[in-house]
Design a protein that fits this description.
Blueprint (H helix, E strand, L loop, with lengths): L2 H24 L6 E6 L2 E7 L7 E7 L2 E8 L2 E7 L5 H4 L10 E3 L4 E6 L8
Antiparallel strand pairs: 1-2, 1-7, 3-4, 4-5, 6-7
């Protein structure tokens, strides 16, 4: 296969992936309930529409420590003691769709959106 065909194939794959991602983000339903689970067990549910003042939630387990920032309409991991800190770099969740995942600490945070949540 020639270099030109490989480059065109890779470009097509990138364009398709971006289109799917944009469609997923644009059409994800808005939600207000954030769900935090640790090791597959629900840890806490937070109604983000009822948060008056931002606060931090310290989650410390046998796997490690995460600091979760809870704000009106948003939730994020502000710090973690895991080596890669991917959960911190994932940013704020404001609507249903992609979850925040910290694999080393077995922590997952997602927002439920009406009748549909991130796992449906």
């Amino acid at each position: 296969m020639s270099t030109k065909k490989i480059i065109l194939l890779l470009a097509a794959v990138v364009v398709i992936c971006l289109a799917v991602w944009f469609a997923f983000v644009l059409f994800a339903p808005a939600g207000t309930i954030a769900v935090i689970s640790i090791d597959g067990v629900e840890y806490k549910r937070i109604d983000l529409s009822r948060v008056k003042e931002p606060y931090e939630l310290q989650i410390e387990t046998e796997y490690g420590r995460n600091t979760v920032l809870v704000e009106r309409g948003a939730i994020s991991v502000s710090s973690a003691d895991c080596p890669d800190k991917i959960c911190v770099f994932q940013g704020r969740l404001t609507e249903a769709g992609l979850p925040i995942i910290c694999m080393p600490h077995r922590l997952i945070i997602w927002i439920e959106g009406g009748d549909t949540d991130a796992w449906s």
